[in-house]
Model the fold of this input.
Amino acid sequence: MKRDLRGVAGLPAVALVLVAGVLGVQVAAGGGSFEPLKPADACAERVVTTQSEGIEGLTERLVLIGINEAACTLGLSREALTLELAQPGERTDEEIDALREGLKSAVRQLEEDGELPPPSELVNEALDTSDMNGFQKAAIRAIPDAMIDASLDTDDILLRAIDDLDLRDLLANLDNEDDLNKQIQDAVTQAVKDSLLDRLSDLL
Amino acid sequence: MRRAVGPLLAVTVALVLADSAIVTLALPDILQHLDTSVAQVAWVLISFNLVLGLVAVPTAVVFHRAQPRILGAIGIAVFAAASAWCAVAQSIEILNAARCLQALGGALALVGCLELLIDVYGERRGLAAWITAGVVGTAAGPVAGGLLTQAISWQAIFVVQVPFAVLAVPAALAVRDVPNVPELPPEADDPDDGEPAQQGPARHRPAIRHNLTLALLSAALTAALFLLVLLLVDGWRHSPATAAVTVSVVALAALAARPLARLLDPSPEVEVAVGSFLVAGGLVGLALLPSAELAWTIAPQALVGLGLGLTVDQLTAQAMHLRLPRVEHAAWTIGARHLGVVLGLAILTPIFVSDLQDAQVPAQEAITSLVLDAPLTAQDKVALAKALGDELKNQQGEVPDLHSAFVAADLPADARPAAAELERALNDQLERAATRAFRDSFLVGAGLALLALLAMVAPRRRSSPEDS
Done:
C-alpha cells in the first residue's frame, strides 16, 4: 500500500522544523560566540585605572601601560606577555629592552596627560617607607614642598629610576615582595639623588 | 514467578546494555579512588564495549544451538559475579579485568535472553521487548550511573546490578526448553537483496547497511552522552546527580519518539534517516551552546533523544528482520553498537583531550586580563595572582577550582565584593573555555551521525536485474 504524503514527508518536515528551530534560537542567543574573552590588541590605546593611591597606584599604572607598550613592541598580547613574565626562567634582551622602553613610554604618557604627582608627594611617601635614619628623614622633611617641586621633575626621577632598575634581576624575584620593594626604592632614591645633583650642577 | 520471568529477562538485557555507558559519570570518582590515570580509567568504558562488541557474534555462532535457558542462566550468572567483582576491585587493572568478564557474561546473557523473551512473549512481542529493553538501557545508563555515584558511590553502580541478575538466573531456568531455530529451505532469499541464502542450515548474510548505520549512530550517540556528561561534570563542575538528571532528557525524548513515529507513519528507512538527522542536529546544538546554563542543553538533548528513539530500535529490528539464525543477527547488532561506541571513543577522545589542552592558553589569558583590570588594589591583585597561579599549577590538566585561590588570597574585607564579582567573571571564562573545547568533538559526532544518514540513504546494490 502506498504511503500518503504525511507518511513520506511528515516526519522529515517535523525534524527539519525542530532542528532549524533549536539551532536558530541558539545562534540568535550567541551560540557561536560563547568563547573565552579574546585579548585586546596591545597596540590599541588602553585606558588604565587603579584602585591604589600614591606611589602604589602610580606604579600600577606605569606597569600596566608599560606591559601593554612592551607587548605591542614584541607583537604579543598584554596577557601573553604577563603570563610569560610570570614564568620562571631567563629573560631575553629583547624582552628586557621592550619592557624598559614600555615603562619609559608610560611615564611620558602620564606626564603628557598631566597625571604624574608632584615630586614632593613622591618624596614624602618614599620617606615613610624608607629605611633612612630619623635625622636624615627629618632633614629632608624640613625642605618645603614648593622647593622640592621647583627643584625636581617627577618624570625625570621616574625615567632615571627605570634606567637604573635591573629589570632582569627584578623579574627573577617577583615572588619576593620585600626584595622587589627594596630594588624599586633603591632605584627611586638613587634617581632622586642623581636628579638633585644634576639640578645643582646646572645651577652652579 | 512465571509472570516475573519476562520483566526480569528484559531488565537483564537493559542492565547489560546500560553497562556500556553507566560508568561515564563515575569515571572521575573511579580515577580518584583507584589512584589511576585518565588514560587507564577510560578503559573501564572501552574494555566493556570492546569485549562485548568482539565476542557477541562468535558467542552467537558457537552457542546458537545450545539451550537458551542454560546459556542465558550461565551468562547472567557470570555477569552478576563479574558485577560484584567490579564493585570490590581495588585496582584499575582488576576493575578492567572484571569489566571484560562482565562483557563476556553479558554477551551470553543477551544471546540467551533473546530466545527466552521470544519464548515467553511470542515472536513479535519478544523481539520488541528485547530491542526496547536495549534502547532503554542505553539511554538510561548514564542517568542511573550518575545518580548512584552521587547518592552512594561508584561501587553502587555494580552492586545494584547483582540482585537483579541473581533473580534473573532462576527466571531464565524457569523458561521451558525451546526448539532449535528453524532452517530455511535452500531457496530462501536474502531479505535485503534477494540473493539466495547459503545452502544447508538457514544462514543469511548480516545486514551490512543496517549494522554499519547502527555502528556510526552508536559512535555519534557516544559523543552526545559521553561528552555531555564530561562537559557537565568536569567542564561546568556540576555534581554527578545534576548531570544525571540533566542527561535524562535524552532518555525521556527517546520514549517520545515511538508515538511520534506512529502518528506520522514513515517508512523504516525514512524513520532511520530522520533519526540520524535529529541526532546530528542535536549534536550541532550541543556544539553551539550560547551559555553554560543547563537549560540550553535541553533542546539539543531532546533532538538527540528523539533521534535515538527513532533509529536504534528500528535499525536493530531491520537488521534482524527475517534473517536466520535470528540470534546471530541479533549478535551482529550488539557487535555493531558496541564497536561503534569504541569507534566513537577512539575518534573523539584524542580530539577533546587535545582541545582541552589547547583551551588552557585562552583561558589563562582571559583570567589574566580580568585580574589585571579588576577594581582591586595592586597589592590585592598581586596576592590573588599568586594564589591563582598556585591553583592553576596544582590542577594541571583539569578545569581548576578558582574558589580556593580566592580563599587562599585572604583579601581584606573591603575588597571582597569586587573579588566576588571577579570570581564570578573568572568562572564564566572557565566555562566558556571548557564549552569551546568540546565544540569540535560534538561537531565530529554530528559528522558521524550524518555518515549514518548517508549509509542509510545510499543507493542499494542490486544483484540481478530481476530483483530491481
Notes: Chain B touches chain A through 53 residues (CB under 8 Å). The CA atoms of residues 194 and 465 of chain B lie 11 Å apart. Confidence is low (pLDDT under 50) at residues 183-187, 464-468 of chain B.
